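Subject: sequence -> structure tokens, single chain

Hey, anyone have a minute? Need the predicted structure for the following. Not urgent.
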Amino acid sequence: QVQLVESGGGLVQSGGSLRLSCAASGSSFSINTMAWYRQAPGKQRELVATHTSSGSTNYADSVKGRFTISRDNAKNTVYLQMNSLKPEDTAVYYCNVNVRSRGNNWSYWGQGTQVTVSS
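Reply:
Had a minute. Here:
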């Protein structure tokens, strides 16, 4: 079993910055891809950014050039640095971690953290 704890959400003005963190804990697992998703009210959850174990990153077109995903493997933590925030970035942000444990692949979700960008 893997637990994810997110932090870093909040209220920020348009043009501001926030940094989200998601720490994974548990036993006997190795982390593959780490990712951030978001879900705005009335909309489907969408992929924001991914970071593979080999170091490759990928971003949604809407956040390219503004958001940066990174990870600290020693701390089993993934980060999302969000700059030049816009009101349309307002959503609940979820981290997603894919792990390998005891011969099987598992996917875990964080509890979500609210990001609100005021205009």
